[in-house]
Amino acid sequence: MTKAPDPSQILSLSTMLSTQRRIAALTRPTPLIYSPALSDAVGCEIWLKLETMQVTGSFKLRGASNKMLQLSDEEKERGVIAVSSGNHGRAVAYIAQKLGIRATICVCDLVPENKRKAVLDYGADLRVVGKTQDDAQAFAEEQIVEQGLTWIAPYDDLAVIAGQATVAVEALWEQPDVDAIVAPLSGGGLLSGIALASKTISPKIDVIGASMEIEPGMVRSLEAGRPVTVEEPPSLADSIGGSIGLNNKYTFPIVRDFMDRAILVPEDSLGPAMKLLFDAEGLVMEGGSAAALAAVLSTDFAAGNHRKAIVVISGRNISRDRFFNAINK
Fold it and tell me: What would be the CATH architecture of the domain defined by 7-58+157-327?
């Protein structure tokens, strides 16, 4: 097998720091807190990176900000378009409103109503298309051709990946001696950024992605050795479902080369993880975020004998009814 490249050759520390300075105009640093209760439950020191406290409620604002702040005047004039399971669309709509850019956000039927409403509240044009994200993607590609809109990728873009890398840059600045960092794994934008930053700063950190057992797009692609299409069944973790795109250029090879392993969690592990975080820390997280905590609570993580880990709590954007239904089952 070809030796993986030095991560700093893909995303240097200076690039990550310049990205951090750039996106400060639209984002905020998020807290990193120690959780005694979760540390006791897991059996090692657990620190929570609370992207739930980001302006739009998830880490997605970082990558989208980095991309959109570098658009040309011509691109801004034409407008932007994005496909989203909710959080990316909310971020793009928020940034577009701040920068005075016209934004079209495409979602599929699986996207919850509260996430659709958030996009509309920021003044974006919401298009609900088809039963899967692939359907929404196909529609968006038509609009790019017909209207000349600028594509804001949810994950497979180096500017987006650099933005997401700032999650790890911030966390490791505060706690540089961790031996593991765990984050949700879907299309791979967050995991790519975290892996590149972590391996650049401290190569010994164990980078772990958390996905669902049923149809994990990136994991199935890694198993196949190439991007593949997967089904998109309904899930409480709707924000991390779906395929990674057959034309994936960046996140597939980065995750392949720099993620240490993936942990797959069952659907019925999400509600208990959400309840545990709520009871222990009074915090709300959505189902996709819960996959990371569920992974840390699993026997697969315990087998790693970690001493100190960061868990990225990636988003909070879940409706009240859906949250309480999940934790009360």
Answer: 3-Layer(aba) Sandwich (3.40)
- Nearest Cα residue to 55 out of 23, 77, 80: 23
Residue with tokens 């991390």: 240
Residue 250, SS3 per DSSP:
coil
Q: How far apart are alpha carbons 211 and 289 in whole angstroms? A: 10
DSSP code per residue over 282-317: -----HHHHHHHHHHTSHHHHTT--SEEEEEE-B--
Residue whose tokens read 């659907």: 267
Q: pLDDT averaged over the chain? A: 95
- Banded model confidence at residue 2, pLDDT cuts 50, 70, 90: low
- Domain spans of the chain, in order of start: 7-58+157-327, 61-151
Per DSSP, the residues of 117-157 read HHHHHTT-EEEE-SSSHHHHHHHHHHHHHHH-PEE--SSSS
SS3 category, 167: helix
Q: What end-to-end distance do the CA atoms of the chain give, in Å? A: 46
- Please check whether the two domains, 7-58+157-327 and 61-151, share a CATH topology: yes
CATH number of 61-151: 3.40.50.1100
Which one-letter DSSP state was computed for residue 83? Answer: E
* pLDDT of amino acid 223: 98
Cα–Cα distances (Å) from 261 to 237, 298, 300, in that order, read: 20, 14, 10
Distance (Å, whole) CA 312 – CA 329: 24
pTM, full prediction:
0.95
Lowest mean pLDDT, pick from 45-49, 233-237, 266-270, 305-309: 233-237
Q: Answer whether 82's CB lies under 8 Å from 88's CB.
A: yes
CA distances from 98 to 26, 63, 91, 122 (A): 8, 16, 11, 9
